[in-house]
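Supplementary Methods S3. Input chains for the assembly prediction are listed below.
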Amino acid sequence: MHTWTPDSWRGRPAAQQPDWPDTHTLEQALKELSTLPPLVFAGEAASLRRSLAGVAHGEAFLLQAGDCAESFADFGADTIRDKLKVILQMAVVLTYAGGVPVVKVGRIAGQFAKPRSSPTEVVDGVELPAFRGHIVNDDAPTVEARTPDPGRLLRSYHQSASTLNLLRAFTKGGYADLSQVHVWNQEFVASSPGGRHYAAVADEIERALRFMRACGINLGDEKDLHQVDFWTSHEALILGYEEAMTRRDSLSGDWYDTSAHLLWVGERTRQLDGAHVEFLAGIANPLGAKIGPEATPEEVVALCGRLDPERVAGRLTLVSRMGAGLVGKTLPPLLSAVRGAGHPVVWACDPMHGNTYTGPGGRKTRQFEDVITEISGFFGACRAEGIWPGGVHIELTGDNVTECLGGSEAIGEDDLELRYTTTCDPRLNGRQSLDLAFRVADLLRA
Ligand code: PEP
Ligand code: CO
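Predicted structure tokens for the full assembly:
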């Protein structure tokens, strides 16, 4: 029988790995990484697994959200704060509508690496290595910028550490106070063109808070009302980095990838015999796997067998990313096959990656209504199978960008040029994200 080790993935084909120009500097960077303190503690990852078990049992809802790709250039307290703020606002709306706890997981503090459909791209007639995320190279269109640089592995670690530090301070230090988040939502509702429709939910939350105060509950004194658990996640793509961050937990003896609480495998790297699945199979963190429209029931069941052989609730989250037009057809056979195989997975919906297209100006974009249509199709498919629609996985930013079309402010194709700042996929802006939360709230209550 084959034994797993943090480096056993090296014996398998590893898709999407950079062509590092110099193995000596790469090895030095990985060696240094392996001596640096873990970013998360094993006990935290285990605690997230228990929260996700609640989602698997239909007793909680997962909100996983953040950047497509974090950026070295766009790194500062305000960006982190604004992203957290919008996720907290969404979570309050969803908690109220679903009547269950919302497990909050950021695509943040480590979401730097990007899989690409082609290893090169042609810019102004020149063929360049593709941009693979700031953990590998820079997005500027020159050969120098696109050359993979192992120093970026260390910089990603340090940026993740400071990001996580600020997230911990905000979420435990009072910034996540429920009454405050509710006030932000009221401000959003008051200023939103879609506001009248949303006012009903916001008013109900207001009444619920007033009711608690009237019962003598001091909202400021209740720890659970001003602190939240906020977890980190990213795609485990650059396996050398993930291996270097993997440590044995002295308490349980289990291996944890301490670069984040949850790691996922992408649609392009989930080959059953590939290096990514091999690596993830041996770490005890909760895992995610993206599932696209080409996946067959046999493949998905086999993936569950590799990643969740013990059938542990909370271990594995399957993230359906089918596209608005396909979800109703491609998801149901997978839902029933996985259930038939006895894997207590969380089913979540990524309504972003199956709905990306290139607009007239050459910019990648997504239609807000397609995003909603896919989530609605996901809810419909799950409910028809008697399966809990466990959550959503969203690419967003708190910034006022113009990258996705539509939403209650009706961003149009001409607006894409205004504030298109993503280094990879188009993200919902702060207001579109809240629009989405209120629309998902309707689905949860339906
Ligand atoms: C992503 O989540 O940014 C991504 C690349 O997704 P997928 O693997 O589903 O295409
Ligand atoms: Co993306």
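DSSP finds 14 helices and 14 strands in the chain. Residues 309 and 343 are 8 Å apart (CA to CA).
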